Amino acid sequence: MSRISAALLSAGGDVPLFAALIAQGAGAMAAFGTSFAVEYALGAPPPLLLVLAGQGAAAAVVGARLGLAPWWIPINLALPPSAGLVLMLGLPGWVYLALFAALLLFYWNAGRGRIPLYLSSRRAKEELARLLPVRPDRGASFNARGVKPARGQVRFLDLGSGFGGTVLALAAKREGEFVGIESAPLPFALSWLRVTFSGLPQARVVHGDFWKHDLAGYDVVYAFLSPAPMAELFSKARREMSPGSLFIANTFDVPGETPERTVALEDWRQGRLLIWRM
């Protein structure tokens, strides 16, 4: 591998948007180069949408080679042909700006923190309800199936709470305090409306960066994020969470750390709840 290729791979792993641009540029060169060759050989160019679909396929392959997360694959695949279709519609310029602004507000964390929007499944919420401690002390017991739901108090924090579904589901089953923190503006606004009109005073969501949020005082901290932040987040949990409290990750492992318990969710993602006692 050349020094230039190694540098691009390194940049791709650290700056995903830069790597995505590299992937799309490489895909465009491959697709349009092939198109020019076909036109020269046959006397007629292939359909533009077919060329753009080829660009997306090539970009997906290059992006994976540059170390982009798997959720970038459908984005790289769909972006060129989607852009071509939109341009064919002849929409006014402000429509593109509005769409870009909406996507930015929705996927605020995807480019900056490599944390896309993942929504916890119904099965995950059910298992979380079983795993919550029955008492607010830090030594509450649990097992592979979780503890029996009870009327005990608990403080629960969902990091990157999205639309607030997990917070609301748990608040409807248990007494205590159920908090979600979300930094993406649009998901936060929608979750705030859901919580405000839910009639569940024990549920609330706050807008903010969970890296700046103190994890002390919570009985359970839950994270369904991506592989990228897990090592640093676990270190933060070790520093700040109280002894005996639970850190629960959905699906994504913490490098070098073996969970005390693992609960198979058997949902459509075939996810797992990975549980550590601090």
Quick synopsis:
With 278 residues, the chain is an alpha/beta fold. The protein contains 10 helices and 7 strands. The protein has helices at 3-14, 16-42, 48-65, 72-89, 93-106, 108-113, 122-131, 165-171, 185-196, 230-240, and strands at residues 155-159, 177-182, 203-207, 220-223, 246-250, 261-264, 272-277.
Draw up the topology in text.
Blueprint: H1 3-14, H2 16-42, H3 48-65, H4 72-89, H5 93-106, H6 108-113, H7 122-131, E1 155-159, H8 165-171, E2 177-182, H9 185-196, E3 203-207, E4 220-223, H10 230-240, E5 246-250, E6 261-264, E7 272-277
Helix pairs in contact: 1-2, 2-3, 3-4
List keywords for this structure.
single chain, Rossmann fold, 2 domains, seven-stranded mixed beta sheet, about 15% strand
Oligomeric state of shown chains: single chain
CATH homologous superfamily of the largest domain, by name?
Vaccinia Virus protein VP39
User: How would you sum up the global shape?
Assistant: elongated
Query: Judging by the overall fold, what is the CATH architecture of the largest domain?
Result: 3-Layer(aba) Sandwich
Binned strand content: 5-15%
